[in-house]
């Protein structure tokens, strides 16, 4: 325990990073790197969680939802703990030429154990953010505990390198955003309200007259939540054409009920 507190509060003078072709990362770059990491991890979790949502999730107790999403929580924790696994850098650090080094071994690459250890203290994130600002070497308590320092590789700027990194960042964001967008209908379709709205259209004669028999729903449902009702929008394709349908559910009671069905006919199908 004494060693733990000594690590946190005794601030040894590090070697001059310039001797090793490095310089200490500024707090601004540390923050930017963290925001990049936070963004991509959040997008990953937002794209994954719909697949773990239980059927009829909107009728479940909070405790049941929490249990169902335990794999997602574990994934998030794992991504944060092991985010510096790309040669001592996270994705955000790599973008800014930052990486984690071992203070006790002449600025050599920090071990995997050290990299995980320093990220454990992110559970006190507000304190860690403040520590970066207050510490003269921009070290948070996790760095002090693990005996690490975040440094920047001293490289002359090259247009090609910057362009490649910008393209890589845009590709990653687009891929993760696409995962998020395509995954959202999965959770919507598992809701009891959605399934009730969908079932209400079975045998709905005005719909059959417009699109014909054997119709099917499009992939992208729409949903609007209000205090006393929920509106689900469907695109329905059939042999006679296609149309949009809105089903309104009254949510003021424990068991929602359909109160209105509206056809919004596509102009091309008229």
Automatic annotation (TrEMBL):
Range of residues in the leader sequence: none
Compartments it resides in: Membrane
Principal location: membrane
Keyword entries, A-Z: Membrane, Transmembrane, Transmembrane helix
Superkingdom, natural source: Bacteria
Cross-referenced InterPro entries: RDD
Transmembrane region(s): 31-53, 65-82, 166-183
One GO CC term on file: membrane
Record membrane topology: Multi-pass membrane protein
Keyword Transmembrane applies: yes
Location of the RDD domain: 25-146
Claim: Protease is one of the keywords in the record: no
Protein name (database record): RDD domain-containing protein
Source organism of the structure: Candidatus Lambdaproteobacteria bacterium RIFOXYD2_FULL_56_26
